[in-house]
Amino acid sequence: MTNNYYGIYNMVGKNIKKIRLKNRLTQEEFCEQIGVSISYLAKIEAPNCEKKFSLELLFIVSHTFNVDIKELFTFDN
What we know:
By secondary structure, this protein is mainly alpha-helical. It has one domain: lambda repressor-like DNA-binding domains (434 Repressor (Amino-terminal Domain), Orthogonal Bundle), CATH 1.10.260. Helices cover 56% and strands 0% of the residues. The chain has four helices and no strands.
């Protein structure tokens, strides 16, 4: 994957963190609900961390927290 896409991953990761905080969940609680490890979630939420995650994970987050998947791709300026 080229470096050009990491900005999108970072913005989606930021939105995942917003969902977690909106639901007042710790990383551990959030991870239990979506079935990932804390270290994996920490990488997703970390700014400027080069990570990849699947579309499946986005569907799980969207479904579990009743959020339209489009919200994960809505970026604040």
